[in-house]
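### Sample
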Amino acid sequence: MSQPDTEYDTRSRSLGENADANGFLLGVVAMLLAALAMSISPSLVRLADVGPFASAFWRVFLALPVLWIWMRYAEAAEPDAPRASFTLPTILAGIAFTGDLFFWHLSIMRTTIANATFFATMAPLWVVIFGWLLLRQRVDRATLIGLLICLAGGTALVVQSLAFNPSRAVGDGLAIVTGAFFGLYFLAVGAARPRTNAARVTFELSIITSAILFLIAFFFEPRILPQSISGWCVLLALGLVSHAGGQGLLSVALGRLPTVFSSLVIFLESIAAALFAWILFGENVTLLQALGGIVIVAGIWIARPRTA
């Protein structure tokens, strides 16, 4: 091979590595912002003046116009990119997200915000379990170690309220179910992303979720409409920040990061949710909880994907 060819191959490989590094960095940033955007949702659900099913419906429905604009813009910017509509993984993601919000909003009303968020963000454990059972996916040792460290850090965040309390037992159980549905959601969105862009996946799964949640709210809530301007503002914040922002950025991240690692980053939602609960509801953050947050960050760092 001639010298110019060798230089060209080296330069091409360098460009490819830089593109992979940039894509990974973008995925991490998107995941961090997604965790932050979703972490405010428990506090907003508490502040809403409608029931948990109605707030779940409005959370998704009010985000649809923004998600539609995002989808149109994304597809105009990349007209040749794949855009398969309502694929099976997207439909399954919509159903899984419905289950996630159904149990998540109920759990928030029946246990502490710290507990509800911790059990819900145990999704990485379910991603590993369901990934192995359903997809025969294997996880490397570093990721498993990182997962165990994150679980230890998350436990430290809620250790003071984990003692058995009959008044919170149902809420804790609902949050555990939430985590299972969230894990299925991660796997479904991860499977959908290679077939279409993040904007279309998020928009289409949101259509499915909002339709099912409307029926649930219609039959099980005494009223669906909020009764005040502040109530509408809370729901709008849920829709724009937690759903359009949080789930949209999550879809972006899942197109660039391994599914299991992405689910680990969502542990950061526990840290941010504890801070919001402290600011808004006076749920104090102790030294042990702060150390738990540091341990979570360490676990995510250990589990990070390595490049060859």
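The first helix runs from residue 3 to 39. This sample (EamA family transporter) is used throughout the tutorial notebook.
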